[in-house]
Amino acid sequence: MKQTELNNRQAYFNFHIEDKYEAGIVLLGTEVKSIREGKVSFNDSFCMFDKGELWVRGLFINAYTHGNKNNHIEVHDRKLLLNKRELEKLEGKVKEKGFSIIPLRIFFNEQRYAKVEIGLAKGKKEFDKRETIKNRDVDKEIKRLLKR
Questions:
Q1: Which stretches does DSSP call E strand in 1-148?
Q2: Which domains are assigned to the chain?
């Protein structure tokens, strides 16, 4: 069976990831099928707390191609499932200045449940982003020279 894993590459460029958590996500049937097809966009998605529950907002899951009139809405808030201790720890960190929670990847575990890896992140400054680009270019150049 093909393993589906969708990564949020922009997250690692725009944020310093402090900590990672694996969370379940509440989905509809057609959303699961679209994720298996790889039809997900992380652009402008983030996580927020509402009444002690963690929700992912702005996650775009394209409509299922073989769906019917009961197909899901592409962008709506989806509930994330974590245990209470993890939720309390994350909520305390988010209240600190500069921390936010962002989805890093969506994947299916061994039991074939859809999971979201979320990261406790701090935004990068402009000079940090330039440093990241410079390091990436140096690594590419080293790999290119080693292949010769």
A1: 5-7, 15-25, 40-41, 46-50, 53-57, 60-61, 78-81, 99-108, 114-123
A2: 5-147 (2.40.280.10)
